[in-house]
Amino acid sequence: MRNLIRLFSISIIYFFISYNHLSYSQEITVGIEPFPPLINDDGSGLVINFLSGLSDTTDLNFNFQLMTYARAKKDLQSERLQLIGLTPFQLETQNFYEFGVELDWHIDTCVDFFSLNKSYFNVEELPEASIGTLLGNAEFFAEIIDVSVDKFVEVSSLEQLVKMLALGRLKVILFERASTMTAIKASGIKDIYYKNMGIVPASLAVPNTPMGLKLKAQLDLLLLNLDNEQFFSEFIHYTSMENSGQVIN
Question: Which pTM does this prediction carry?
Fold first, then answer.
């Protein structure tokens, strides 16, 4: 009888511990732009994996929503999202940092120009609406390469950018190397050249609010010892490529 009572008591305690954990779990809505292989179109990816892994050891529960970077920034500003990515670490516009704050964690990415004609890499000579990038990136890239934002066209997907380049509707694509090369290889389009613009660290951002800063502190601590080279080895090899060349399909 005593053993039965003891077993019942343990079961009750376990129930309340489990209920308490579920009751106080933090639901984190994450707005993310496809950025293969870090964030894939099907909702998988290396960044998804490491964030999801945090749910196994913490009370954080991540709800991922694929969207354009432009929408992610808008929804972060309105506080409909608690986390967005990937952001250009410490390189976003001044307006962004009025409502957003990045995590300390970041990973280096290569941003390249892509074109069917190498002469177009002299972007200062290009006309308006001739450089393609994804929604939400034109203003940032225009500042980085010091050209008018009028030279840019923003679209919602890398696949669309590659098609526009192949059809001659764009002279150049400007975006991150690994994700753009993945889209080019999937398209089967050949004879596309690339030239490195520079290294842009990528990160994640929270709202610049008391709750957002609390989440940032929690995530910064959890990601403090993340080994980028080991965890992101599938991605990092892209950064060791030559600074210019031809995309190999």
Answer: 0.83
